[in-house]
């Protein structure tokens, strides 16, 4: 999992090369103007180490989604520093943020967000198309990833021919396509029945065991229990940061 | 992202909405088809008219009396003979006559009857299909013989007229030849004509020796202007025109006529093409409209693509390629329809439309341009979508 930024020169170096994937320093996001200003995120400090499996929890309105948009490089913070993979991404322009999303981050959404007209294989190919991976290599990698999430026999199916759990697994395969440094899962089990949900959590655990860094946003306690560390968010601030002692020790990471 | 990937994505998207895509390109199909077809008709008219002017002969100068000049003299046979002696002139063919009723066994034809000399055959490119042309001795003897055009023959009910006697204004003439058809050229139809020896026309038909016109063949195309000026000088001198007096004749070269015809048909072509071009613009607006609808409909798709790392340019290219593909498809089909219109024009107008390669290239370039011009705004709008907003869009 090599950090890849096409435009290294645009993003200034930040943070020591100490195995930190995410470092948030006093991240603040303010919406509105003048007296109507609301700070959705109010000074968050957070570090996520390579290979870590972190869950962010909090009630609705706690700033989870805003924080997740900032971590996912979909949005810029109003103030603060955000080092992703040793690069300061807080002040990047739109295209540089797109580069970060394409290469450094893999998204898994609550609503899957697959393109309905494309097959499972084509959906997984999509991030690689934007990364300029050639056709043959792309199809091979896409079908490898689909095999890895247990959908080897479903590559030509379209999303509406797949169950919810299967769709989410396609989305996970897609998020892995460009070998990102960070897997960002926003309520990945929110739209699934408990059995499919459990399968998805098991899959995420397996990806973590393989050495991937995962940030999971959820409001379900039993889903969060699978993470090594749980951060609670309230009114835009971190109110609790607990490492679970019984979590499986990391393997193969420094 | 590779441009071929954009093209593939665009075609997938267009194929997913076949009905709508087809209706959208219909506007461009009609526009391009109309432009190609109309320009082809204009070009066809141009070539037809130019062809018949050239068919009159080559390197010709025409002279005729200017009827309404006070004290003016008509052109005479002597004038024609004097012109024939000018340097650079190869042949002169004087003409005398006008429209007359021709009849044969009760059938009649309103034809142009001209008294001519044997030179007419070469100067005016009049080929005899059957029989022979008027000879010098026919002229000298004022023989009552005639060479007729094919349409006149058809008017008279039979093409088997060789050796038969036809009636010209009450005088019987023996048909000695039938002209090869040339096709209509402007106001005078060279196929609806009867040619007789010039002396016979003067004595039997017209009763005066005022020429209706004369055609001069110049040996060297480069000397057309010189000879034309020399004819003007000679005629002014022969007609005793003082310095400053108006010419009592017209002198026109074939080049002048070709230029005039060329100008008129170019304007005609531009006019037809311009009117058809309006429908092309309307077709382009149709593409823009559908692309705007498509961008709104696919907001969520745009959000997903952006979330997984598509840059602004990637989104812009995807939608731009879609609109260009639509307009190029339309342009291709439109060109085919324009060809059909050009072919279909022949039975209706009597001449074929002419589709030039430059018109096809232009139509293709214009339809690509329309795709870009009318596609840029919707594509730009798509590329500017905020990924967070777009992902929330239902």
In short:
Chain A is of the alpha/beta class and 254 residues long.
Overall description:
- The complex is a heterodimer of chains A (254) and B (394).
- In chain A, 30% of the residues lie in helices and 25% in strands.
- By secondary structure, chain A is α/β, with parallel strands linked by helices.
- A 6-stranded mixed sheet of chain A has the order 6-7-8-3-9-10, with helices on both faces. In chain A, strands 2-1-4-5 form a 4-stranded antiparallel sheet, with helices on one face.
- Chain B is an alpha+beta fold and 394 residues long.
- Chain B folds into 2 domains: 3-52 and 259-392, no CATH class; 90-219, no CATH class.
- Chain B is built from 13 helices and 10 strands.
- Classes of the chains: A alpha/beta (254), B alpha+beta (394).
- The A-B interface holds A 69, 72, 74-75, 94-95, 98-99, 101-103, 107, 109, 113-115, 117-118, 126-127, 129-132, 174, 178 and B 1-2, 5, 12-13, 16, 300-301, 303-314, 387-388, 391.
**Alpha-beta classification of chain A:** alpha/beta
Uncertain regions spanning at least 5 consecutive residues of chain B: none
| Domain tally of chain B | 2
Q: Based on the structure, what is the oligomeric state of the protein chains? A: heterodimer
